Amino acid sequence: MRNPPSLLSLSVDSALHNLSRISDLSPLPEHILLDLFLKTLKAGKLNERVLKLFIATGKDEVLAVIQALNIREIIAPVIPSSTTNFTVNHDKIDIVIAALHPDLTSFLNDWRPVFSPYHLIIVKDLDMKEELIIPDGFNVDVFTKSDMDRVVGSSSSILFSGYSCRYFGFLVSQKKYIVSVDDDCTPVKNDDGSVVDIVAQHIANLTSPATPFFFNTLYDPYRKGADFVRGYPFSLRSGVLCALSCGLWLNLADYDAPTQALKPELRNSRFVDAVLTVPARTLMPLSGINIAFDRELVGPALFPALRLAGEGKFRWETMEDIWSGMCVKVICDHLGFGVKSGLPYVERAERGNAVDSLRKEWEGVKLMEEVVPFFQALRLNPESVKAEDCVIDIAKEVKDQLGKVDPVFGRAAAAMVDWVRLWKAVGSSSS
Amino acid sequence: MRNPPSLLSLSVDSALHNLSRISDLSPLPEHILLDLFLKTLKAGKLNERVLKLFIATGKDEVLAVIQALNIREIIAPVIPSSTTNFTVNHDKIDIVIAALHPDLTSFLNDWRPVFSPYHLIIVKDLDMKEELIIPDGFNVDVFTKSDMDRVVGSSSSILFSGYSCRYFGFLVSQKKYIVSVDDDCTPVKNDDGSVVDIVAQHIANLTSPATPFFFNTLYDPYRKGADFVRGYPFSLRSGVLCALSCGLWLNLADYDAPTQALKPELRNSRFVDAVLTVPARTLMPLSGINIAFDRELVGPALFPALRLAGEGKFRWETMEDIWSGMCVKVICDHLGFGVKSGLPYVERAERGNAVDSLRKEWEGVKLMEEVVPFFQALRLNPESVKAEDCVIDIAKEVKDQLGKVDPVFGRAAAAMVDWVRLWKAVGSSSS
Predict the structure, then answer these.
(1) Using CB atoms within 10 A of its CB, is residue A376 exposed (0-12), middle (13-18) or buried (19+)?
(2) For chain B, counts of helices (H) and of strands (E)
């Protein structure tokens, strides 16, 4: 029998070279094998041939490591995704902006370092009369009322006015990923004065796995410098696809009108350096201010369906994103996708008078009391395996259960059905 | 009719004085009333008499604010709890330290600014032979093997060795709140060089409500400077009692042996400035390194029951806290209490060799694969309304369902039953 310590005193390369000439490693003590296996893995030298040699030893501890670390046919250890190194092709991303203000000059110039490499879809609020002003130097397509009439027809139950105009951009995009930010947001700066790249962070969130089935107390385990905490089941460490990334807001946060009216001085200045997966079967108030999603996975589930009677042009006068957010979360839970919340932040400037908005938003406040128990109890048809089918399931339940509570829900259900029809029509005409 | 703007141009005090002479406010326009109401509330001048006057107007918007803000019989608006101003009496708090090292001098001196106002319970690992060294200047009670034998008897299924010795401190404490930190933790410093007061932060977490039924994307809504995000249902904004606060770790984080063995350079340097409620029905790996809890609410649910065959004196060789954590989380969900995770952080120094521990901990890694689905599916008896009854419920299911998988579970179930018996006996003898 070989002298095992000499194997360990060698470099990993030499050890692997020796290893390749060993037809049967079984005589080696288990702890020597384990140590060599870990060194090989850490050095990124674990290829398929070497992995097979280790598996062939049949040693419990080595097999347990292989199983626990989810090593199947990989060549190198899993590299955690990092916001600085994501490798999604720029062609797979659309940035969708709802233009509620005609002059986008300062907005787009602020975001130029982040947005300029990407294709932009700008959708003009159909209530806006003025011409849009868009600075040079962007790859941009603008959509207006005439495009909506052409694609949707004027008799639709779906209205692309105010914040809801962005959804037209979601509809006509042909990209895998959508990033969408309200036009009253400005970039947050890094400590070195550079602009925080929200696209990179959102795409990192979407392309690294989500962990909805067990909470990791150190937040996103795939982030550089983080991992799964002791006790986290190994079988859940490979995670699931992430379908939706919800960013946050500094300065004027996304509070409702009553909260802002009561605490007019309230500003969010706390930067929380975290991304986390919102656990399965936990509902959340999805804000449309700063989001990204995988259009192929859940595109049909982001729609403008719930419109308040007094809906206005301030965020706190809208509920369309909250409603769609409840739907998309339930759908992600049903389909086994994850939803993340946290980074990236944007900065929001003050506008509007919350006390003036208070009246308009009470309707929304009251509706939520009906909406939340409904979605908490909702179970979708197990045979629905695509987002569009799930939307139809939900629309039916909304009509049956909530329709009698308030007519706004009946209209929302009808809009959801129309949306899926439209989504399929646009998809088949563009493909 | 009075001239309403003149009412608003007055100070709140004068306006309230006028208000007290108005027997019927109804003729005033609704937006004037609403504005005055908000001003009154913000100024902390809303007393019961004034509230009744506003209610008597019968105006929809005013009533909606009163309902939405959960104003019942309060005198002043709810002040969010802040870590700097908590008002729990020091007599209600015990700090419990498991002594795994004989010389606690540097540990206690490091923590002196934080711990010195409190009563300390130090429990000596019953395997340790050396005398404990405890510096002067603390209000401390030390418990050793002879105390355990006296209280528990030597034939018990509960073994207070290694990290499990702390639970003896939980048992003999007579305080409402327990804070417990491992003896290899040191304080984190604030930016100004002062020591982070983990007791203040834990108690702030425990004494402000938890929100397990809906996720708030801006984390703890009761924290100073934060609030509930738009779309958060008002009926859930009063929250529930918080029973457990789980702090985190900088430097050597609470990773398992395989993770540390694979990534020996892995250190946690990311300070995440957040506290959040772990949502209902979401399981988590509870770490015993840095925790606090409300002993009156869930004391009987923190116990040393699951002991690995190869359990050692390093954290990554233990599972007792993870197991107890699954139990206490399920119990909190059943009883409607909240569990928080996040701040405060402690710093952990390096010790132990993860590769050496790897072998011992595989047992724990494998057990978790059985444990998680069991707890995810577990439903407690609706008639169990106290933590001790819930523990008995769980013990029965563990024995019935997991007992056949591995004898370690049968022993855990027996220890849980013994623990409840012991908890009741100690409680009745001390009261």
Answers:
(1) middle
(2) 15, 9
ipTM attached to this prediction: 0.84
For CA atoms B51, B54, B58, B64, give the dihedral sign: negative
Provide the CB-side half-sphere exposure for A66 (13 A, CA): 26
Q: Can you read off the two tokens belonging to residue A422?
A: 């439209």
Any bridge partners for residue A245, and if so which?
Answer: A292, A340
Instruction: Using CB atoms, pick whichever of B280, B285, B364 lies closest to residue A229.
Output: B285
At B20-59, the pLDDT tens digits run 554 556 666 776 777 777 777 766 667 666 777 777 777 7
CA triplet B424, B167, B133: central angle to 5 degrees? 130
Neighbours of B149 (CB within 10 A): 13
Q: Residues A53, A25: contact at Cβ < 8 Å? A: yes
What gap in Å lies between CA A92 and CA A174, rounded to an integer? 8
User: Alpha-carbon torsion B260, A211, B238, B298, what sign?
Assistant: negative
Residue A235 contacts residue A331 (beta carbons within 8 Å): no
What pLDDT score does A308 carry? Answer: 86
Contact between chains at B282 and A214 (C-beta distance less than 8 A): yes
Nearest Cα neighbor of B277 from B242, B236, B235 is: B242
pLDDT, greater one: A53 or A103: A103
CB of A286 within 8 A of CB of A325? yes
Interface contact B42-A261, CB threshold 8 A: no
Residue B421 neighbours by CB under 8 Å, 6+ apart = none
What are the structure tokens assigned to B364, written together? Answer: 């724990």
Burial of A11 (0-12, 13-18, 19+ CB in 10 A): exposed
- Whether the Cβ atoms of residue A314 and residue A259 lie closer than 8 Å to each other: no
Beta carbons of A83 and A202 less than 8 angstroms apart = no
Residue identified by tokens 């002879």 is B146
Closest CA to B286 of B263, B315, B266, B264: B315
Encoded amino acid at A323, one letter? W
CA distance A380 to A384: 7
Q: How is residue A212 written in tokens?
A: 């909805």
Tens-place pLDDT, residues B72-93: 533 333 333 334 445 678 899 9
The reply to whether the predicted model has a pTM over 0.90 is no
Task: Give the 3-state secondary structure of residue B250.
Answer: strand
Token pair, residue A417, equals 């059905």
The three-state secondary structure class of B50 is helix
Burial class (CB in 10 A: 0-12, 13-18, 19+), B77: middle
Angle subtended at Cα A304 by Cα A301 and Cα A305, rounded to the nearest 5 degrees: 90
CA dist B253 → A239, B50, B216 (Å): 21, 53, 26
B282 interaction partners in chain A (CB closer than 8 Å):
214-215, 279-282
Is the Cβ pair A61, B358 closer than 8 Å? yes
> Whole-angstrom Cα distance, residue B212 to residue B22?
43
Q: Which residue has the tokens 């409402």?
A: B176
Q: Find the residue in A nearest to B271 (Cα).
A: A273
Dist. CA A24–CA A7, nearest whole Å:
15
* B27 alpha-carbon distance from chain centroid: 50
Q: How far away is chain B from the Cα of A18, in angstroms, using its nearest Cα?
A: 22
Could you tell me which residues are beta bridge partners of residue A345? A248
Contact assignment for A34 to B358 by CB distance below 8 Å: yes
Closest CA to B290 of B324, B342, B326, B247: B247
Distance, CA of A288 to CA of A178 (rounded, Å)? 12
> Is the distance from CB of B401 to CB of B147 less than 8 angstroms?
no
Report how far residue B189's alpha carbon sits from residue B195's, in angstroms, rounded to the nearest whole number.
Answer: 5
Q: pLDDT per residue over B271-307, tens digit each?
A: 999 999 999 999 999 999 999 999 999 999 999 999 9
Coil, helix or strand at residue A119: strand
SS3 A186: strand
